[in-house]
Amino acid sequence: MVRIAARWLLVLMLAVVAAIVSVALVNNSLASPQQPVREYLQALRDGEGGRALGILRASVPQSNAAMLDGSALQTSAARISNAEIGDTEPRGGSRVMVPVDYTIDGRQQRSEFLLERSGTEWLVFSKWAFVPAPLPTVEVTVVNSSEATVNGVPVNMPGGRNKFAVFYPGEYEASLNGDYFSAPATRAIVSGTDSPVPPLILLTQATDELNQTVALKVKEFLDTCAAEAVKEQRLQPGCPFYHSTGNLVKDGTINWTITEYPAVSIEAFDGQWTIAPLAGKARVTARQQDNFSGGFSDLDVVVDFSFNARLDVGADTITVTPQLSY
Predict the structure, then answer these.
(1) Domain boundary among 153, 175, 206
(2) Cα–Cα dist 21/19, whole Å
(3) Which of 57, 247, 275, 281 is most buried, by CB atoms within 10 Å?
(4) Structural domain of 231
(5) Are residues 170 and 236 in the same domain?
(6) Domain co-membership, 83 together with 105
(7) Separation between Cα atoms, residue 220 and residue 264, nearest integer Å
């Protein structure tokens, strides 16, 4: 009987030890503070913003929510590589900090998550939850545009500005790629709620397509004006170019040609797109008679000219209106 009792006692002790080890293993894995962090990071990779928000227990500040779900969120998380969840660090009371080290664009980064013990399951397994905090935000501004693209998603930019609530860690990229206006992409890494995020500023410029289209319209205007001046045989036509002479010019000999077309530069000014002052050269040739001697000679002069033009860009139209002063 003693031997049987001893055997049962040994089995019982082994069972107790196994139970203690099992509890410890579970508390260090599935019931560890790192587990909610794993689940949260996976939700980001899956682009499931609702699940990520629930796990993080975060509040959403007043902002645009376009970055909080779907492809925009997946794009942000996809830029994270070599993520490693570190050991917990005590933060007083029932709170701990869980660090995550990772790289974005080849640069080493770290995010720190604050969690607290929220109870137990089955009286032995610890439960951990994120300490609630508001999500960080990223501000985006764009020059002279009411739209942009952030993490591949088209977004509205009222007055050229918008603020987006974002998850972390992640990287957010803003750009503008229109037919007529574009801006180089700019990026910001968001590592936590306490790290300031620099605003993404899009410096919009006219595209080559718009510059070429405007240059063509300016050329068409000047060529048409020169042709009309020849047709009307005028040295001082209603054009940006003209010539004055005291001699008598023989009718039918006046000819105007543009020898240097203006270089087009489109600039942002006071919330509008403007064409910088246009300057070029025109050549006039004719047969003239001296008023005093009566002798004939050839007139051949290259004149400098300049003028302004107003630019109006619609969804499908580009209008260039010359502004001439006489």
Answers:
(1) 206
(2) 5
(3) 275
(4) 208-323
(5) no
(6) yes
(7) 13
